[in-house]
Structures are given as C-alpha cells and as structure tokens.
Amino acid sequence: MKINTVLAFALAGYATTAVAQAQQITGAGATFPAPVYSKWAESAKPATGIELNYQAIGSGGGQNQILNRTVDFGASDAPMDAAKLASGNILQFPAVMGAVVVIVNIPGVEMDALKLPGELLADIYAGTISKWNDPKLVEANRGVTLPNLAIAPVYRADGSGTSFVYTSYLSAVSADWKSKVGAATSVKWPAGAGAKGNDGVAATVRNTKGSIGYVENAYATQNKLITVQLRNKARQFVKPTAAAFNAAASAGNWRDAKNFAVDLIDQAGDTSWPIVSATFILLPKDPKDPGRSANVMKFFDWAFTNGAATAQALEYIPLPGAVQDAVRSAWHTEIKNPDGKPVF
Amino acid sequence: MSATLSSHSTLPGAIKNLNVAKALGRRRSRASTVVKALCVLATLIGLALLASILLTLIVRGFGGIGLGVFTEVTKPPGSNGGLLNAIVGSLIQTVIGVAIGTPVGLLVGTYLAEYARGSTLGNAVRFVSDVLLSAPSILIGLFIYQLVVAPFGGFSGIAGCIALAVIVIPIVVRTTEDMLSLIPVAMREAAMALGAPKWKMIVQVCYRAAKDGIVTGVLLAVARVAGETAPLLFTSLGNLNWSLSLTKPMASLPVTIYQYAGSAFDDWVQLAWVGALLITFGVLAINILARVVLRGGK
Q: Does pTM surpass 0.80?
C-alpha cells in the first residue's frame, strides 16, 4: 500500500519533472571547486534557465566519468594526461583557480608573522629541521620568538590534488625534495603524520602544538587558522591574500600552455603567492547531446562573466579576462556538432 | 594458591578434603567473577561506544535541526540550504530498492527452505547468497555501474534503487530461510494431511507462521540500505536540485553527508551532522520496530 503510494508519487514526479527540468546538466569530479560550482549554479539558474547538478566524486572519478560519457562534463584538479585527452576526444579548460596555504600552530606566533623560505619548508617536511627554534628558522624570523618545540608536519594521508600542488611547490624550490620525494597526489612523506582531507589536516594542526600543515585557502580562512608568509620566485615574502593569488594567476604563461594545463607554481612577480593552481573542466569534443553540451558552455560563459565576485567570496581566484576569452574561442573551434558546426 | 593448599596438607583426611573442596570452590568462584567482570567490561565498552556515537550526533546535530532542513533543498555554502531533496531521494531509493529486492529474496529463501533442502543446487545458491551478504557494498555499486549506468550513458535514480535491491536480496534470503526452517515439520505434515498442495502449505501455513521473522528481515534490510553511501556514489550519483525523476541523478542522505562532512564551510558541516542524526535515528527506529514486531509475535 505504502510502496504503491510512493511509486505512484515517484512516477507522477517523473512525468512533471521531465518537462520542467529539460535544462538540467550534470557534472562530476573534483571536490575542491564544488562549493563555487554549486554557488554559481544557484545564481545562474534564474539568469540562464540552466540547472547544474555538480557532484564532488573526486578528480579521478571526474576523468573516468567523462571518458565513459556518463556525465555532461567532468572536472579535475590535476590537468588530464594529454594522451588521454586526445584518445577520449576531450577539450580541457580551466574554470577557476585556488591557492594552497601553509598553516601552523606555534604558541606565541601570530597570523602571517612567521616567514618560511621554500627550502626551509622542504627541510621541515623532510625532517631535517625538527625544532621551531632551529637556527635557520630563527635567522629567517628576526623579531619573532620561536619556542624550543618539536615540529610536527601534517600531510594528507589520502591521495589529493592539494598534495600534488604542494609537493610540486616543494620540488620547485628544493632540488633535494625533487630528487628524493618528488611531486604526486600521494608521496612517501619522509617525516610527520597523515590526516584525511583538508578538514582533517586543519583539525590536526588546530589541535597539535608545534604542528605545521597545508590546506586549500578556504579551509584556513573559514577555520581562522594561523597562516605563514612564503617567499616567492622574486625572493619576496608574501602574505596569503587575494591580491597575491591574483598576481600569481596573471603571471602564469597561459598562452603556451597546451590544453590550458598551465603551471602556476612559483610564478614570477614581486607580489605573487607561490602555491596557486587551476582546476579544470573536461568536455567532449563530439557531444552525443549537443544541446546539453551547449548548456554546459552557456553556464561557464555566464560564470566567467558574472561569477568572479562569488568565486572570490568563497576564497577562489577567478580566471584572468584574457584566459576567459581564450577558453571561449576554444569552445567555438573545438566542440562540434555531428555536421561540423560549432555547438556554442 | 598452591602455597595455601600445601600449608593445610598436614591435616587429617576428612578435614583435608573439605578444605580442598573449599579452596577449589573459592578458586572457581574467583575465576567466575573475573570472567563475569571481563564480560561486563566488554559490554560496557560496546554500550559506551554506541552511547558516545548517539550523544555526539545529538550534541553536534540537534542544534542544526530546523524547519529549513525539511523544506529547503541542498544549496551552496551560506545560502541556508536544507536536506529536502536528499531526504526524499533516500526515501524513494530505499523504498523502491526494498520493493524490488524483497520479492526476489523471499522467493529464493522459500526455495532454499522448502524445495532445495540439502540439495547441491540449494547449497550452491545458499553459499553464493552468503558471499553476496558480506560483499563490500562498493563492489555492488560498481557492478550496477557497469550493468546499468555505463551502457545507458548516465547516472540515474533507478540505478541506485537496483544497487540497493542487490544488497537487500541476500539479507531477505537469509532471514526468510532461517524463519521457514524454524517451522515444525508436524505443522507442514498437518497441512499436507488435510490435502493441501505444497504451494498452499507454504503460502498459507509456513508464511503465516514465519511472518514476524520475515518482516523483521525486511526491516533490517531497510535499515541496512538506508545508510549505504558506496553503492549510490556510482549509480544515483546525487543531485543538488529538486528532482523526483528516476532516470536522472538522484540525491540521497548518505552521499550528501559524505560530501558535506569534509567541507570548509560550517553550514555544510552542520547539515552533514543533521543528516547523520536523521539517518542514525531513522535506522535505530527501524531496528527497534523490528524487535517490537518480532517480540509481539511471540
């Protein structure tokens, strides 16, 4: 009886929603941009009539789902392998960017007071610097009182795009790190303890005296954690601010990046934050349902034009205008109907 | 212990035996006390874990419960979203999943108990069903992904329902077979003696006698699938928006919890706690209901 009622309810619902939700598009992938995509979806719905359903199943999942064509678009933090993009006939474009920040819990050390040159950060994670009052750290931080306290590095125990970006930075600034550990979504960490997810690292650092960790910027600001200054390529110490993130994003060499897979780590510029990365959207070049694909592009077109403030409010970095235009022209030239005409 | 015994060993026979008996008695009661204490301790640890889970859920989740949780769909951080689509999606998928899985499970259980007792095929079916019972649910999700999602080119609510149904089947098979096996042979013989055909004996005598147990099995299956995340991740995927369509991705509470719990934003984390509270107490209520139904029948 009850089952019949619910079935009838569900079927009736199907009949009505099939008409009302003709504009629904589905995307899946990276966890990192999920909040901003869902915020864009909320604002874009009244403006464009497109209802986006984005599900954060992880970057690997996003790549697989678009290869299997089970979603309208995939999303990935790490750029997809060029060979896979070609064999899967997929266009990759950046949607938004994010920064990774370093957080610490040292008694007496205030917000953005500690200055960490990249090579010392690598030494800390390598375990060769193990006390906060190590002469090298004291030398770099005149005016900050550093306690005689053991350093507890915290890393991501799960495979993670954040770890990839962070270890890419450590590899860029330390030849030792590059040769001994390298850059990957999960590496063999020489020292420290693991925690699951950005939230796990944030919580562990908050609860452990003497600890240091790395998280996406949103987790540091939302949890009011103590961040540190890092030294960029121009050998200037910078605080993790929106301006510093934007500077790094603009400094990136977008023009020469194949498949938009730009490297934003350790960019030039006096004010650039050194650990910035883009997150990508994956869209089939030969959509089986061109109408839905056109809606995906319409959605991101809307988001590029109108979504910058929303992105910044949620601690993301919007794409520079020139990059947006390059993405728009790639849509036009790369994504075709079966008859060869541009979809969007 | 042995020192005490040997100090009394110079006493005459009868008293000596009595003392030995007393010493043995003391030793046994001491051993019994220790074992009892260990049992009580183990029970307390189990209960404390359950209590701390429930308490944490209430403390962290109760503050977030408001009308909005039940009237608003999931929204981006800072937009006062609720869990309506997730709650309704979970209800739909659980109900349809159980509705698909129960008849199959019931018939297989009946076959095992009534038609295939001791037969090779019956034993093979029972073995496979038991393996399925303990199979990791993510495998069932991937199985349905390959079977339904990939060929039909998209995630859908119905794929989620089918994945849940596959989990329901072995649970219902096991309880149905166990319950039917408990029915005395005399009862079956009585029905047969009155001239009832076998199907009539099963439907009108055995099912009726085993009803409470079978219903309990179904309720336990409901409780099991209501909290499943893994099989839904790659079948019904989840949906941010209000959708009752079975051919489109569908939201569910466990998947929403999974995605919100690790978020940077407090309102999403709060909703994850509320969702966990709702599922846990929903499942607890179903379990209690199952006990009451079972007890009420006896």
A: yes
